[in-house]
Amino acid sequence: MPVVLPANQPAERFYRGGARIARFRGTPPGAGREPEDWVASTTSVHGQGEAGLTRLPDGRLLANAVAADPEWWLGPKHVATYGADTAVLVKLLDAGERLPVHVHPDAPFAREHLHTGHGKTEAWVMLEPAEVRLGWSRDVGADELAGWVERQDADAMLAAMHVLRLERGDAVLVPAGQPHAIGAGAFLVELQEPADLSILLEWDGYAIDGPGTGHLSLGYPAALAAVDHRGLTRAEADALRTADAGTVGDLLPGAAGFFRAERYRGDVAWDAGFAVLVVVAGTAELVTGGGARLPVSAGTTVLVPYAAGPARLERAAGLEVLLCRPPA
């Protein structure tokens, strides 16, 4: 059976937000520091125990359920390639303030220094317009970056980054190693490798101990080696963005080795496999090969396991849905 997932918002995050998630889901607003909704998550907040993990309606953690029967959830082909690893994490993110400049390590760095199998390449699908900063606009030397971080010179960092003014429906790939900062007011669906690994380049003014916790316990001299120092040309930065809000099907062709994000409007069908649905607008009926029929509407998030069989959305009315899946 598909699993309808309620909000899963870790409390007391270091930046403000959450009101847009509440409106999207039709739930009461929280205290204002629940800016992330971790959907179908087998990943915990770094250093915070079970925070961020999805709990199923029967009380089990999704991570434990997948580990107990990975082929039921993920399928034999996925398990043969990735093991009992969902290989994708989906979030709703509501930036009530600009996020600090930060970066995520890639998989080779994470394996060598953090002894984990994933880095954190991510992508955004915008639900509202926003401005973001992504990638250096010129080469930034290691000493120059280290000086900015030590002095907390956020103005210098932001001035050296590309500005992308995104519209609703735009999709953006954020490769690991690229510095970025999501602007205030952004509301988006985020796909990422299933790891919570962030290195803060900026922390001044945020409710977090950057010198103590912003470097993944590596210390900043080691952690900053995860940053890509090469400046992107404007064409390279723009190429990370799929700017046509009318695009349906694959939104992130360059991300296929990490995850898949597809947008559909109207009736649609797909093969059996682990999938997370985010219903952005409208209504439909989710029908699976296992015989399940489930009405869905805007604000609904649904986990469809491999065992549900081929699935389809039918009787769509004003439907816009994001289908989030692991790499093929």
From TrEMBL:
Highest rank taxon of the organism: Bacteria
List the InterPro entries hit by this protein, alphabetically: Carb_Metab_Reg_Kinase/Isom (IPR051804), RmlC-like_jellyroll (IPR014710), RmlC_Cupin_sf (IPR011051)
> Which Gene Ontology MF annotations are present?
kinase activity; metal ion binding
Q: Is the keyword Zinc assigned to this protein? A: yes
What UniProt keywords apply to this chain's record, in alphabetical order? Kinase, Metal-binding, Transferase, Zinc
Q: Which Gene3D superfamilies match?
A: Jelly Rolls
The name of this protein is Carbohydrate kinase
Q: Which organism is it from?
A: Jiangella aurantiaca
